Amino acid sequence: MVQRSIPEHLFDDYADILAQVSITGRRLTRDELQARRAFGERAAGEGYGLRQLVGRHLARTRAVWPELPGAVGASGSRELRQVAQSVLAAAEQAIDAMAEGYERAQLLAVRQEEAARREFVDDLLYGRSDLGRLSARAERFGLRLAHSHVVVVARGAEVFDDTHPVTRSVEDAVNSRFGERRVLLTTKDGLLVCIAPGTHDEVVEYFAAQARAALGGGSANRVAVGRPHTGPGGVVQSYEEALSALELGDRMLLETPVLRAAELLVFPVLTRDREAMADLVRTVLGPLQGARGGAEPLLETLDVYFGAGCVSAEAARRLSLSVRALTYRLARIHRLTGSNPADPLHRYTLQTAVIGARLLDWPARSV
């Protein structure tokens, strides 16, 4: 990449300072240092590189040295060395002040960029901005909101922000592989968030794999995927679906590490008529509350039994029970509820009621 040439006249003040220092041996004044800082800030704003600026300062120092009054008028080698030391000290001060101003301008630019990015992310995921203006801003961050997008969220035991090591490692991995795919990685409310084109399933899969590897094991660590939707409002919808999938995974005690909203659509359908579902839970499972130890152990037994495909040996293994003990529990459930888990018709009713109980947080909450 070819850098723009820095105009020579920008260093005239610097040359004048060196000329005065060569005569007096003084250090730079406060005003001179402030002027060099201001020069560094302007140079950063105009796109000049810091290495380029340092190099030009050193080159100008070398170029003017033979013409400096103090060097020309030196009466001996000792006096010449003193002049050289003063000039080099002044050059060091000037370059340091310039670099300070340059870095300050760069830091301010980064902070402004981060603030703009955070504002955009908040507006995008909350859907609280004018959609036309939001679409225009999205181009700056690599998104074309007229197209379909899908949102993936990752939750860990820790709260994530944009500077968290997990955020950085996942972002670096995804950007290294899909940098040209218009993918935005960010954080929101402690979650790691990926917004990707809705047609690029490989991005979703890779992000999920990287996030899971970075998060490690544990029930608190989950990844949830919304459905693809089109337009600025589609990003919000996909994000909300991913959040709902996380909540459903917790309520239903799902062990799947990657939850997909498209695979969980049955649950919102089941709870659409909340009163009907509550009535089913009370009627079918209510009698379990009369069991010794309450309803929860037997409810867990049913949940695991259905999750194991109604295979008693597998369900017993997951519950750390003997098959005989599991059979006894199922028999107790049959006696209390009147519904036999082994009967196909009764099984459907019981399983639907168990799903409803998890969705409604029963028996912890009354329904």
From TrEMBL:
Residues 127-248 form the CdaR GGDEF-like domain. Residues 298-354 form the PucR C-terminal helix-turn-helix domain. It comes from the Bacteria. Belongs to the CdaR family. This is Regulator. It comes from Wenjunlia vitaminophila.
